[in-house]
Design brief:
CATH class: Mainly Beta
Strand content: over 45%
Structural class: mainly beta
Distance between the termini: 51 Å
Number of helices: 1
Order of helices and strands: EEEEEEEH
Helix content: under 10%
Oligomer: single chain
Low-confidence stretches: 92-116
Shape: globular
Number of strands: 7
Length: 120
């Protein structure tokens, strides 16, 4: 199944919903900025993925990675955007989470040592 990415600004983060069966979901809305007309897109996190929203606040820029999920119930069809990753951005640069590892800039070795002389 293909996955998709969407970048935008968090508009709303809703409280978690817990059902009698023990199933938990939490929804949030992202406003797109790349479209001619901005769109408010509702996503959902389920089960343990709900915790991803604990540190997400309205106004933050994010990149959301998600899958499409569809189902039929009583002759009606539903589509959910099921999130499996949320990346926070500060402007255009990704903020690193504790478990993301080092940034690419941190892995690159310097091309030369700065001893005050021009390298060419």
């Amino acid at each position: 199944m293909p996955s998709y990415d969407l970048t935008g600004t968090i508009k709303l983060v809703m409280d978690a919903q817990e059902f009698k069966s023990g199933f938990t979901k939490r929804e949030f809305v992202v406003t797109t900025e790349d479209d001619r007309y901005p769109q408010d897109i509702k996503f959902e996190c389920v089960k343990d993925k709900c915790a991803m929203l604990d540190n997400i606040m309205p106004g933050q820029k994010v990149k959301v990675s998600f899958d499409l999920r569809g189902n039929e119930y009583k002759d009606r069809y539903y589509v959910n955007l099921n999130v499996w990753r949320i990346e926070k951005f500060d402007g255009a640069k990704k903020q690193m989470d504790d478990n993301d590892g080092p940034a690419l800039e941190d892995l690159a070795e310097p091309a030369f040592e700065d001893d005050g002389e021009t390298p060419f």
